[in-house]
Design goal:
259 residues; alpha/beta; 9 strands
Length: 259
């Protein structure tokens, strides 16, 4: 069966599903290219307010295809460099996408698949989900922003343990450390992620975009710089028609209708 990124609209949420049964949804060229393209299209669509990223057949993503990696190792550094650059463009596209992106994880999120989940704004995982970074077992080092994300999200000893020992970590443990937002019963991660996305779809998209940008940029700023950025975003959003609608809805005790 071909490797593909399947798309489905559920109201104002776009669901992207990694689908490659032969490799447990490994990161193929087709999936990575389609991921970037889908976000580009969704960014310009007023009908799409949120994106949910998941995997088919009870697995989120098994990471890199080892057979492909073995072939690439015989073709010179340029081939694998280009492949990683394509993967990293997808990671950056998720991080800079102005709308919420939620990962719905069932089964394995391994290697680059774990990096892909961490790049999302929120992670919903079933209790049977397992997150692993087994690069060192095959003599490799991480990719997909794994080290950057882990150091943002976890204490250094736990991040080091995950990288060096390569042992799968349960969703419950990552939930305790704030990496996973919600833990669900098996088979319910996608439904819960879509439910959260639908809640977010009812909020002002400009305000959500501002918050995402502020959260993304804080590591590069001092407190005074972040305060200035918050001020500028606040003023911009106050002058946006959505603020007038939100304030009016509050006083009129009705749901706001944001655009």
């Amino acid at each position: 069966m071909p490797s593909e990124l399947q798309t489905e609209r559920q109201d104002r949420t776009l669901v992207l599903t990694l689908h490659d049964p032969d490799t447990r949804n490994a990161l193929s060229e087709e999936i990575m290219a389609a991921g970037v393209e889908a976000l580009n299209v969704a960014e310009s669509s007023d009908e799409v307010r949120c994106v949910v990223l998941t995997g088919a057949n009870g697995t989120f993503c098994s990471g890199g295809n080892l057979q492909q990696l073995s072939r690439n190792s015989r073709l010179g550094p340029e081939v694998q460099t280009q492949r990683l650059d394509r993967f990293h463009r997808w990671i950056e596209a998720i991080r800079t996408f102005p709308k919420p992106v939620i990962a719905a994880v069932e089964g394995a999120a391994a290697g680059g698949g774990f990096s892909l989940a961490m790049a999302c704004d929120m992670v919903v995982a079933s209790r049977d989900a397992r997150f692993s970074l087994a690069y060192h077992r095959i003599g490799l080092s991480p990719d997909g922003g794994a080290t950057w994300q882990l150091m943002q999200l976890l204490p250094r000893p736990l991040a080091t343990e995950m990288l060096w020992l390569s042992e799968p970590v349960e969703a419950e443990r990552l939930h305790a450390h704030g990496v996973v937002n919600r833990v669900t019963d098996k088979g319910q991660a996608l439904a819960e992620a879509v439910a959260i996305a639908q809640r977010l779809a009812g909020l002002a998209p400009n305000a959500l975009a501002s918050s995402k940008e502020l959260l993304n940029q804080w590591p590069t700023r001092s407190l005074p710089q972040q305060l200035d950025a918050e001020r500028d975003c606040f003023v911009d959003n106050l002058l946006h028609p959505n603020a007038a609608e939100g304030i009016a809805a509050f006083f009129e005790k009705r749901p706001a209708r944001y655009r």
